[in-house]
Structure prediction request, 284 residues.
Amino acid sequence: MCQKVHEGPVLVLYIDIDDADITALPMPANAPVAGTSASAQGSSSSSSGNPAESGIVDTPNQQQPATATQPVEDGRNELLDRIEELETSMDRQIRAMEQRHAREKERLNSQIVARNNEIIIAYARANTLQSTIDDLQYDVDSYERRSEGHRNHIRSLQRKLADSEARADEATNDLAEADAEIDDLVEKVKELSADVERLEAKADGQRRHINSLQSKLQTSENDLYAANDEIDRLTALSDAHRSHITSLQRAVEDKKSIIYELEGELSGETEYGDYDDSYDYGYY
Prediction:
């Protein structure tokens, strides 16, 4: 869209297209100055050279000399030609711009559709990611609860470990004492082993002595058996002697009785109180 306006001696063309070529065309030097004429506005796309179609209107009451009419007409025609050329150029530029704008619009529409598709996909991905985030948050909460339980268990195990280390230290000290006692016992065992060896040597000597004594005992037993046999023989002989002694004692008693009777008869005494023990030979 264009607008042509006569403002005094200058024809100003206003175009609202960005890329259009805007040119201010001066009026010819011999153009009449508006004093009694009115300004005319309008648009024209024809190339016929009609002043009414070109938007330039002469004042009806103005009288101009015949010599000045031809230059004005030439200027008007020149202006109209230039306006037509300008409009043609502007039409070409407008069509090119429209084509360029159509291509750009198509490209932008394609980009918008692609962006909309990307936005839809992004929303779907965002929803998926949000679901994944929710699941992960739930897992994180679960893991935090589980990790808290594990931390409590770890603290319990650490306390148990500290107690075990304390007991291990005590056991280590006890083990050191036990090692010292074991060393003492080993020394004592060595001493006892030496004593045992000495005692075994003595025992061997004692066994040899016992064997010797057993041999002597066997000999003594044999001698004892022989002595017992001799004792038995002597006992039997003693019994015979004892019987003989008893018989002799009886005979002595009988003889004593006879002697007493004889003494009594000799002394006239009948009592036996003055019995002299000198006649007792001690045979019992």
